[in-house]
Amino acid sequence: MTDITTSPQISAPLDCVGIGFGPSNLALAIAMREAGSRLACHFLEKRESFVWHGDMLLDGSRMQICFLKDLVSMRDPTSPFSFLNYLHVHGRFEDFINTRTFYPSRHEFNDYLRWAAGHFEAQCTYGQEVLAIEPVWDHGRVRHVRVHARDRQGRERHWLARNAVIGMGGRPCVPEAFAGLEEVSTIIHSSRYLSAVDRLGSADRVAVIGFGQSAAEIFMDLHSRGVAVDLIARASTLRPADSSSFVNEIFNTEYTDYFYGRPLEERRQLVGNFSSTNYSVVDPDLIEKIFDTFYQQQVVKAERHRLSPRHEVRAVRVGDQGRRIELNLHNLDDGSHETRSFGGVVLATGYRHAPSAAFLEPMRSCLESMVPNRDYSLPTAPVCDAGIYLQGCCEATHGLSDSLLSVLPMRASEITDALHHGIEAQAERSVAYAVG
Fold first, then answer.
1. Can you state the angle between helices 23-34 and 408-435, rounded to 10 degrees?
2. C-alpha distances in angstroms, 3 versus 12, 134, 139, 146, 436?
3. Cα dihedral sign for 112, 115, 119, 124?
4. What is the distance between the alpha carbons of residues 331 and 136, in angstroms, rounded to a whole number?
5. C-alpha distance from residue 114 to each of 24, 50, 73, 86 (Å)
6. What's the whole-number mean pLDDT along residues 187-197?
7. Helix (H) or strand (E) holding 338
8. C-alpha–C-alpha distance, residues 130 and 168, integer Å
């Protein structure tokens, strides 16, 4: 534990440090500015510049949600940070209308986000990997947290703040069989796909693990590059994403209140019931393209790609200095095993949306629970005045939309309000403490 009376400060305390500067904390920065907030807030981002899923910006890939679910429009359609104003500023408003789509390319939406982030350069320090958040004790109370970070050169800095908002995005989910193989250059997670795909250029055959949207997009990309692919997953088939109108109401703002108010077991059932909107599902048009690709193989009587549903990778062997990857596959239908050899593997196995336990370990004595309150704050001990807020990792309490773009504007507004109320409450306690 750090005592504020003995530890040097590098600057005056901030009202808030935002950890990560992806869409979630970018939406927060905008909400705070548009609310006229005078809170001093600074953001720390591990990457050297703003980019949103840069390694999955595949040619031809499109958004799966309407462009109106941008950073601001659900909160304030007149905001200058809207996607429509971005189009206007860049002289593409009419041309976009003529595309007759609600779903811009992923390249364009990333450019929109970068444009919005460019308005907050002074409030973000890039190239900072946050290592830990620790409490700062002041005469028996925790009034601040200290956020430790390290840059690419190994230099460490820290920021003192009354609150921290964690919005780091998901961490790659790696199947157990591939644990410990992160350094093998020919085994890559989809989160690094475009940066690493050239390593697979000479591979005779590549395994893509997963049946979700990323797996489908990567399959078609490798197909266009002339690479033979085995598409492997535990699931029975590629399933279409359910984006029907009534089902999509679970992404409406008021649904968060409904979901949060349900008992724990009912929340779990709701997530399971609506998993087809987000997990291990594929855009229907893309499924048709993949089906046609396999059908054309039958027409020309030349098997190039292989589809392997109901198969699970049980063991992995790396040989020839990483140039050969042998996968032991278990057939979930008949229990048989087989070994296949590949020149590379792509893990399209999704993400985990939860803050690192080690990351928050120093705060353990100050946190009563890791289950967030309705305002996205973690419950703190009575001696802790500082606040910890979570963005994008509250699915179990706030619903399926929590890790998606749909709720960004309203969640940012709610956290902005909570920060203001928290600072006011801290000030009142400080006055009471001084008088007492």
1. 60
2. 15, 11, 8, 11, 21
3. positive
4. 53
5. 13, 6, 17, 11
6. 95
7. strand 337-342
8. 10
**Nearest residue to 369 via CA among 396, 331, 407, 335:** 396
- The helix/strand/coil state of 8 is coil
User: What value does the mean pLDDT take over residues 203-222?
Assistant: 96
3-state SS of 117-170? HHHHHHHEEECCEEEEEEEEEECCEEEEEEEEEECCCCCEEEEEECEEEECCCC
- CB neighbour list of residue 305: distance below 8 Å, 6 or more residues apart: 219, 223, 228, 229, 230, 231, 293, 294, 297
Whole-angstrom CA distances from 5 to 147, 148, 274, 309, 434 are: 17, 18, 51, 61, 16
At residue 11, the pLDDT reads: 59
- Find where tokens 């990333």 sit: 110
List all residues 6 or more positions away from 266 whose beta carbon is below 8 Å from its beta carbon.
none
Both structure tokens of 375: 């305002």
Q: CA–CA separation, 385 vs 407, rounded Å?
A: 27
For tokens 């811009």, what's the residue?
Answer: 104
CA atoms of 232 and 211, how far apart (whole Å): 7
> Within 13 Å and on the Cβ side, how many CA atoms surround 25?
25
What tokens does 15 get? 């009202």
* Residue 349 half-sphere exposure toward CB, CA atoms < 13 A: 23
Give CA separation, 37 vs 125, 241, 256, 367, in Å: 20, 39, 25, 27
Higher pLDDT, 1 or 94: 94
CA–CA separation, 45 vs 311, rounded Å?
A: 38
Contacting residues for 337 by C-beta, under 8 A, at least 6 apart = 314, 328, 329, 330, 331
What is the Cα–Cα distance from 23 to 208, expressed in whole angstroms?
28
Instruction: Give the mean model confidence (pLDDT) for residues 185-202.
Output: 92
